[in-house]
Amino acid sequence: MFRFKINLLNTFVILFLLLFSFSSYANESNQMLYKKAKSLSVKHPEEARKIAVVCLNNSTSVQDEFESNFIIAQTYLNQGYYDDAMKYAFESGKSEALLSDQNKFDLYLLKSDIIRIIGLYDFANQYLDLAFAMHFDSSNAMGHRNELERQIHKFILLIKEKKFAEADALRTKLDAPTYIKSRAENPHLDAIFVLYTYEIWIHKSNFTAADKALNEVIDLCKKLPEINAYYIALSYIYKGDLAFLSKDYTGSDEFLITALAQNKILNNVKINQQIYSKLSRNALAQHHKANYASYTLQMAKYDKLIDTIEVKAHNTIFSLIQSELDAKVDIQKNKYQIYVVVAIGSLLILILFLSFFAFRSKMVLEHKQALARFKEFNAKREIQTVVEPFEVAVVKDQTTKQIVPEETELAILSKLKKFESSNKFLNSEMSLAFLATLMDTNTKYLSEVINKHYVVNYNLYINRLRINYLIDKLKTDPKYLTYKISYLAALCGYASHSSFATIFKQITGNSPAVFIELLRKEIESKAAVTHED
Question: Whole-prediction pTM value?
């Protein structure tokens, strides 16, 4: 009997050891899979997602579920599917109270990233504030890394909000010796930071510094396999933009094709849309009709896909944030903090609703103001045609000496009328000197004639001709209402989208997008009235 008890005890011990060994092996195996999935997520997101799904199905703890859902969310973010990225990000935080501080920190930054990319900056700042509110031991490497990472996230968000002065101040801070060591220890974060300094340099028109930053990022990417392919592709897209600005269209095409190759496996839809949009721009500049048609078709496909993704993402985010607030209330409902949590939750919801209605009221007011400017502009028709010179000619001061000989003045006026009907003003290379050459005169005479008879300077004269030409196209040919603003800018002779938009607004009172939308509604309204009649 005693021997039987001993044998039974030995059996239990062996079974316990076997179970413990199996559990340890399974845990070790899962950790290896998580590590592999995480490394793949930045360049092979679909493969990483398959591994993470397997881990999720085999998860046995809150930590397992968090890591699996977190990696899946990252893979969708890396491919530009923000709706799915948000769903899995929120799923990974469903047991937030049980997560470690490091897990919470990583989750707040992930949520902030996703929300920032689709343009909801206020919500992105809220999650970033949660990350900044967390305290870590500043004496160890992880604490330094976390501090660097949240500062870089703040830097990117400031740039996207176009708060360039604040962003530049933070750039200076991150370039200080305090952060240099931390950046060197975390080269993948350093690469991301340097990449986004590009936008600071572009804002300052420092193209040399911008190009230097991109070259530095590309060099870092070649040495670091863990760098996200998204940032590598973005670097080459920006290189393509710089080449385009210097009119090196062939070089621009090469950089964009390289970006396309970098994005082939990652297959980020937003990156593809940017690449084809810029390839289309290059083809237009080079008069490659076949390439332009092909690239525009691809761009339209991704435009439609991105619009669908972003609409779904907006709806999902508002729903998930509300659900998250509700869940937090439920978790605390049996504890003494229930009243505080409910009050905070109610306040947050109230703030969200007030913000929403304030935003909506602001948008309604802006729309009314834009509509008023549109109607006023159409009533005045300031740029419908260029004002006839002799109708606005200033009465000549008899005491002022005639600068341009009268015969020359009449000849220039006659040539200007021919110029206005020739559409040569659409040439992006057109300048006062160029036009003077066409008129067989000098810039001083030409400028004087334009100032005297049109009561504007040369720049406004050309800009009115170009904008007038475009508005005539928009009103007479409906297909122009569907074109991208960048295409319309190029059509009018503007190499820069931003300069075109600024000039258009100065002349019409509204941005191109707002003007086109109002014009479209006006045309639809007239069509509806005609149909009823």
Answer: 0.57
